[in-house]
Amino acid sequence: MSTPRFLKRAGVAVAALVATTGALVLPATTSSAQPSTSDASFVVSEAQFNQIFPGRNSFYTYSGLTAALDAYPGFANTGDDTVKRQEAAAFLANVNHETGGLVHIVEQNQANYPHYCDAGQPYGCPAGQAAYYGRGPIQLSWNFNYKAAGDDLGIDLLGNPYLVEQDAAVAWKTGLWYWNTQNGPGTMTPHDAMVNGRGFGETIRSINGSIECNGGNPAQVQSRIDKYTQITGILGVPAGDNLSC
């Protein structure tokens, strides 16, 4: 029987990669040296952030986002100014979609909570069977994803996944972890898609794959595109090519 490899969602669509062996496997990870960044250099101002998310949950602070930037200094800081702003817009458009406009901090369907623990992993589920539900701006879920993100960030998220819903900077860091290091059901990280000119559509593929792309759910794809074009307008850059997947 096939088993989902990567599931994450705030009660919306679920991205799934299937391992025919029945074993859960982490998504591919990529890394590369990138230039450094700082809070002051982020291409989205606080005023623009508030304009993009007028109804956001107060948990998702601008200061939390800027505090998370040092974890992945290449994010929105690679290439020319247009590429930097397009990448920031692409990330924010996708997290907008994942969280209902930065409203949801945790997955809304609590019936799913016990499902996100692969007890067969050698490290098990130390925080409990139902502790690894979706949280944060890209709705991190499953014990193996909490471990991978925590290992990369130097935070014990396997032992204390609740940090993602308690600390805004940690929540943003998990979103940036996925964006910058995980291919998901796609063929590249969303970061690589934007900095290498593959376009916004490829970021959707890396987050939700065929559940939305290739005709899977064109309305959801269009919703992401609409927000992306709105944000690029606010940031004063063209949206670029290849918006759909």
TrEMBL record:
<dbReference type="InterPro" id="IPR000726">
    <property type="entry name" value="Glyco_hydro_19_cat"/>
</dbReference>
<feature type="signal peptide">
    <location>
        <begin position="1"/>
        <end position="33"/>
    </location>
</feature>
<dbReference type="InterPro" id="IPR016283">
    <property type="entry name" value="Glyco_hydro_19"/>
</dbReference>
<dbReference type="InterPro" id="IPR023346">
    <property type="entry name" value="Lysozyme-like_dom_sf"/>
</dbReference>
<keyword id="KW-1015">Disulfide bond</keyword>
<dbReference type="Pfam" id="PF00182">
    <property type="entry name" value="Glyco_hydro_19"/>
</dbReference>
<feature type="domain" description="Glycoside hydrolase family 19 catalytic">
    <location>
        <begin position="55"/>
        <end position="245"/>
    </location>
</feature>
<protein>
    <recommendedName>
        <fullName>Glycoside hydrolase family 19 catalytic domain-containing protein</fullName>
    </recommendedName>
</protein>
<keyword id="KW-0611">Plant defense</keyword>
<keyword id="KW-0732">Signal</keyword>
